[in-house]
Amino acid sequence: MSLTVQSPPSPPLSSPSSSQGRSRLRLANGSTAPSVISKLPRSFPVVRASTGSSSSLDTGLSTELDAVSTFSEIVPDTVIFDDFERFPPTAATVSSSLLLGILSLPDTIFRNAVDMALVDSSCSSLDNPELRLSCFYNKALANVGGDLTKLVPGRVSTEVDPRLAYDTHGIIGKVHDLLKMYNEINVPPERLLFKIPSTWQAIEASRLLESEGIQTHLTFVYSFAQAAAAAQAGTSVIQIFVGRIRDWARKHTGDSEIEAALNRGEDPGLALVSKAYNYIHKYGYKSKLMAAAVRNKQDLFSLLGVDYIITPLKVLQSLKESITAADERYSFVRRLSPQTATNYIFTTEELKKWDQLSLASSMGPASVELLAASLDGYVDQVKRVEELFEKIWPLPNV
Predict the structure, then answer these.
(1) Is 251 a residue of the active site?
(2) Staple partner for 91: which of 6, 39, 100, 280, CB 3.0–4.6 Å?
(3) pLDDT at residue 27, rounded to an integer
(4) Alpha-helix residue ranges (DSSP H) falling in 60-119
């Protein structure tokens, strides 16, 4: 049996070339975040199973990937360019971990984008070493992000320096700087998201940036309070890490939100996605919800209907290889929908207007600890990139 990939009906903005498909760079954010996010319109390719010259439409067969993709946009957790045909990405994230990967693979198609950042005169002329390295870092993000916009049809999310996580004006200033760099290479703002952690200061930055028409992507959401505050801020994309919450719950106790989910017999990570989705749709917020750290097919089946599901390649491969007959397709059930969201009952406390004090008092130990650990990991990666830049700058023969 052979598998072929068919493009979605709507034409993509651009297509990767065959030479790009041969590059072996893994676009991943390590253990801290997925490297691929979805664009707003659903355009994940339809994967059809075929035997010989017959198509799945001829035989009445399709894959589980076909079935689940009718409910949510299913996007790869990581992308290897050799896998472009198997799992074409709809969009991407440029991050510190991606830069580390590029620096470890000098022949990657993105290395020139990084080298061009290191010879940028506006950065190299800075006398302060810290400012110079920070400038190189941001220029590299924008250059690589610009290249990614030519490879994927959707939006590219750019990681904002996590060291600014508790500085609202610092985040806004950094996003404006990145936008200026993208503008210099002719990348329009509608192709961009800016990825920031879900501290109160970052949520407030998201509110102000969204009011300017700048799209934001809030990550490291581990509690309902964070998700609700982000929705009220008008954040474009809210990202919840299902598996990380589950992992915390297996090793710790004392978080009332997690304990409540467990007492209902629910997985706390899946329960948070469901609750956040119902809140967004019941009260008409514009945010799109992204479920990440999905560990297996059962997780994915439990989330059908959420806007985006970031899915590991091994799970995608299993979905793609699992063939379903026509009458089996209807066994997949949409778990989340705007219609069922109207029936969800929220407490008066949950419907409050969130502010810094109420967010801080409502975040339990799980979200506090997971947010801190996630930020530490991001900051460490940025420092490693800057250390590598310091070692290789100035470039030889330039």
Answers:
(1) no
(2) 39
(3) 45
(4) 64-68, 96-104, 111-118
